Description:
Layout: H1 2-20, H2 22-37, E1 42-45, H3 52-57, E2 67-69, H4 73-76, H5 87-94, H6 99-104, E3 114-118, H7 125-136, E4 140-145, H8 147-150, H9 163-166, E5 169-172, E6 180-182, E7 191-193, H10 195-216, H11 235-250
Parallel strand pairs: 1-2, 1-3, 3-4, 4-5
Antiparallel strand pairs: 6-7
Helix pairs in contact: 1-10, 2-10
Amino acid sequence: MLAKEWLKNAHNVMDSIESTQMENIRKAATIMADSIQAGRWVHTWGCGHATIPCEEMYPRIGGIVGFHPLCELPLTFFTQIVGQMGIHQFLYLERQEGYGQQIMKNYHFDSKDCMWIFSHTGINAVNIDMALEAKKCGMKVIVYGSAAATGDKPGRHSSKKNLFQLADVVVDSCVPLQDASVPMKNHIDKIGPLSTLGFVTMVWMTITTVCEILEERGVHLYINPSHNVPGDTTAQERLDEAIDEYQKRLHVL
């Protein structure tokens, strides 16, 4: 059954992350904890399906205030497929050097911030622009993706660097570069991609580690509660506190 083959591949990715990436996840989480403790932001970035981990972490039940998505609509809302904001435009934009610089002009960054970038291959120009601009601002850059599989492959950028080569910390998703993992008998292309599963797995491994570090330091966490549990009379109050803290931090941007 192809379903079981995909599930086996997914288990292998998660097992590989656990066995090889825990140290780097801890390094990344420590940088993020430092930013959040300082009252600053962990800015998150991805385009295409790499925006999914950014959207997964906050606002989210069980997520904490401190993560700020920088998702850009033309690079995220590509479900039109054709026509306005279609796939052709998306693919063109993510490869355009200089686009990331224009995105970054919209915010006021601080060296206490850090930048968390998701990219499966790490070769597209917009992601490389975002990393370079973040480093100019004094931010640490954390990159999650298929780093080992990409290797030294140059990016689509005049720097000739790929995203992983620019990072202060890299966490490898352990996903094959092709992403799709299940072969078909009568087709060239495989089905069943794994990168989104790998990203979301690493997101919660990382954020739980961030929370662990902050709690050990005595830092109060603003956690988004579930407001759908009958009998929890203070859920709305806790949610309001989290949103108020988020809004307060937005003033620095």
